[in-house]
């Protein structure tokens, strides 16, 4: 009785010696702004999961779906998710008893009581069971950590899918912009060829100088050099898209022209809503939860563990005797294992887990701040590019009128070719600038969809 009292009295002392002071999380430094810096132009607050369809181009829809099905990075992310789902089953298996079957024949020679050698044969078969009593929740904490890590990989897969879809959409819109610029350059090249032929004819008949003809020829070659430059950029952009699609190099089908695409108007909502709309924020949040659970597991490793064991078996001098008339064997027992001295290894591991948790918290705050910045940047880009495009379109129409008047004055002999040449350059630059702004504006909408999480929600 006195021994039992002594053990019960020593148990709290043992637990207090094994316990470790709590490691509180760092103080939060994240401040959620009440509103976006740039006002939104309105639109539907609900963002469709297939947000790229809002541009109204079936070819874009087809490319994004191909990328989501065949992209190599997404295949890696899906495989990683399967790995972490299997880790949950590994951690959860410790909740149940472990059963093992053993069968071992042995042949031995020993010295008998009279000094003569004695040879014996024995066959032992047994079923062994072991079970750890999760008294302090270490196993449950391991399962919880594995579950949060798996959830973080689900969010990582969604984040990777969003990045692939956004990069595909941006690349396709850039491709359409290059196509429009190439069409403009070819049309301008035909106009330059006609201007050069007219300048050469007027030089040959004595109506103009060689200087005007040479200037027309120089402008012709300058415009002609733009065509292969754009063709090279188109080939590079197609190859970049093929990499996203997991396809071999080659041309890509187009759908609508750049000017025919719709300009979507996604509404960003409030900044606080963004915390549940972006998969990378969900991934960072779940990693905080996983690291916190891992910290609890590391602290629980300092506490004693209780293990129950049992075995039931049989022994015979031969396999036939083992099956026909065996000798029964059995055992049952339990053990308590408590760390007494490990040179501070377990405490250091718990401290390491604490620093991992702290880094996860800092990473979460950094990801949220980046999300706020990306959304505000996209809103500011859309608002600024829309205003720029209005002015660029007005400049393009005015430059076109200037070119028409200058061409008529030159053909009727009221002005020199320099006047028409200057008008041609201005009109070409105005048209090119309007096309580039149009493509940039559509790409800014893609950036906004990316910043808003692309329609992803945790429920999915």
- Uncertain residue ranges: 5-17
Query: Which secondary-structure class do the elements indicate?
Result: alpha+beta
CATH topology: Outer membrane efflux proteins (OEP)
Q: How many structural domains does the protein architecture include?
A: 1
Proportion of residues in extended strands:
5-15%
What percentage of residues falls in helices of 4 or more residues?
55-70%
Mean residue pLDDT:
86
Strand ordering within the main sheet: 1-2-3-4
Number of strands: 4
Distance between the termini: 60 Å
CATH class: Mainly Alpha
Q: Which superfamily, in CATH terms, is the homologous superfamily?
A: Outer membrane efflux proteins (OEP)
Integer-rounded radius of gyration: 38 Å
Oligomer: single chain
CATH architecture: Up-down Bundle
Mass-distribution shape:
elongated
Order of helices and strands: HHHEEHHHHEHEHH
Subcellular location: Cell membrane
Keywords: Coiled coil, Lipoprotein, Membrane, Palmitate, Signal, Transmembrane, Transmembrane beta strand
Main location: membrane
Signal peptide: 1-21
3D architecture notes:
The chain is of the alpha+beta class. Helices cover 63% and strands 12% of the residues. Helix 3 packs antiparallel against helix 4 and helix 7 (279-300) runs antiparallel to helix 9. It starts with a helix and ends in a 9-residue tail after the last helix.
Helix and strand layout, with pairings?
Blueprint: H1 2-18, H2 58-70, H3 72-92, E1 98-111, E2 117-133, H4 138-204, H5 210-245, H6 271-274, H7 279-300, E3 305-316, H8 319-324, E4 327-337, H9 345-411, H10 417-451
Helix pairs in contact: 2-4, 3-4, 4-5, 4-7, 4-10, 7-9, 9-10
